[in-house]
Each structure stands twice: as structure tokens, then as C-alpha cells.
Design a protein that fits this description.
7 helices, 5 strands, 180 residues
């Protein structure tokens, strides 16, 4: 099955990556949803040491990378994506994911996130230099772990697409099902 970038199904795969990465690294997924406007969210309870924040943040990107590697992502006209086009859209999709990846402390009085090597702009975009470390972490730590789990990621994505909302109990049931 080919997946058009920016489609609701594409966003569901991205969220399914966050879900499965959470389970792999020991976080708890509370809820996942995609609203009628196409805004997708996954709520996660992280470990108290926050060690799950970066892996979960990169889960969506990692799934997109695996779909790209398998030639399953296409543009609106059905054409395969170039590496540059893939990376551009993947980093646009990861804009909000970079917050838990880079930000570990609350904003200070000067409007700076302490300890973060990069700071988001007022429009919530990130400097281009923030892309390479995010992607490198995803390539090295998350893509290899999600690769063999793509059948369950696909099942989660398809269920999220069909239902538009999944509770923790529903997610755990889907993860326990045999994949069709």
C-alpha cells in the first residue's frame, strides 16, 4: 500500500511510530488521536528519569524513514519522493517532536530553554541545524528497533485511521492482536 505524504493515513503512521517507540523504551501511551482537521496527537507518560522522551519523539520520524526506505511514501501525484523531499517533509512533521527531543527543562525568565542546544523560533520552527542530530538519533537508535515491528506499527496506524481515537486499553489490545 502506498501512502501519500500529508494524508491522514500518513499522519496515523507517524503517530503509530510514537506509540510503538513508547512501548519499546518503557513509556506508557495514554491516548492517540487524529481530529477532523488532521491534527494528530499521542499522549505519553514518560519514565520519571525522562529517558523515554527522545526515543518516543523520534518514533514518528523513524517510521516515516522506514516507509521511505520501502518506497511506500509518494507525493500527491503518486510519484516517489526524492531524499531531499522526504527529509524536508519529515522535518516539517517532526517540528513538534523536537520539543520533547531537545527540551528537558522549562523555559526560563529570558524565554530560553536551558540545556537545549537549539531554541525554537516564536513560530515554533527550529533552526535547520537541529535536523541532523534529530535524524541521526532516529537512524541510529530508533529505526533499527522499529524495523522488525513494522507489522504492528501498520496495524496501529490502520486502527487509528479507522477509529480516529485510541485509548490505552485499545492500543494494548491492538498490539496484542495477530497482524492481518
Amino acid at each position: 500500500m502506498l501512502i501519500v505524504i500529508g494524508s491522514v493515513l500518513h499522519k496515523c503512521f507517524h503517530e503509530a511510530g510514537h506509540i510503538e517507540a513508547a512501548y519499546i523504551f518503557g513509556a506508557t501511551v495514554i491516548h492517540a488521536s487524529i481530529d477532523s482537521g488532521g491534527v494528530a496527537r499521542t499522549s505519553v507518560q514518560h519514565k520519571t528519569d525522562l529517558s523515554t522522551k527522545s526515543p518516543v519523539a523520534c518514533g514518528g520520524f523513524a517510521v516515516e524513514q522506514l516507509l521511505f526506505d520501502r518506497a511506500r511514501l509518494v507525493d500527491q501525484e503518486g510519484n516517489p519522493l526524492s531524499v531531499a523531499a522526504f527529509r524536508k517533509q519529515a522535518m516539517e512533521n517532526a517540528r513538534m517532536d523536537k520539543f520533547p527531543f531537545y527540551i528537558k527543562q522549562p523555559i526560563d525568565a529570558a524565554g530560553i530553554y536551558p540545556g537545549s542546544p537549539y531554541q525554537p523560533a516564536s513560530d515554533l520552527t527550529w533552526p535547520i541545524e537541529s535536523d541532523a542530530p534529530f535524524m541521526a538519533y532516529g537512524f541510529q537508535h530508533i529505526v533499527p528497533k522499529l524495523d522488525s515491528r513494522m507489522p504492528i506499527v501498520e496495524k496501529l496506524a490502520c486502527e487509528l485511521y479507522a477509529r480516529r481515537s485510541l485509548t490505552q486499553i485499545e492500543i494494548e489490545a491492538i498490539r496484542g492482536m495477530s497482524v492481518c
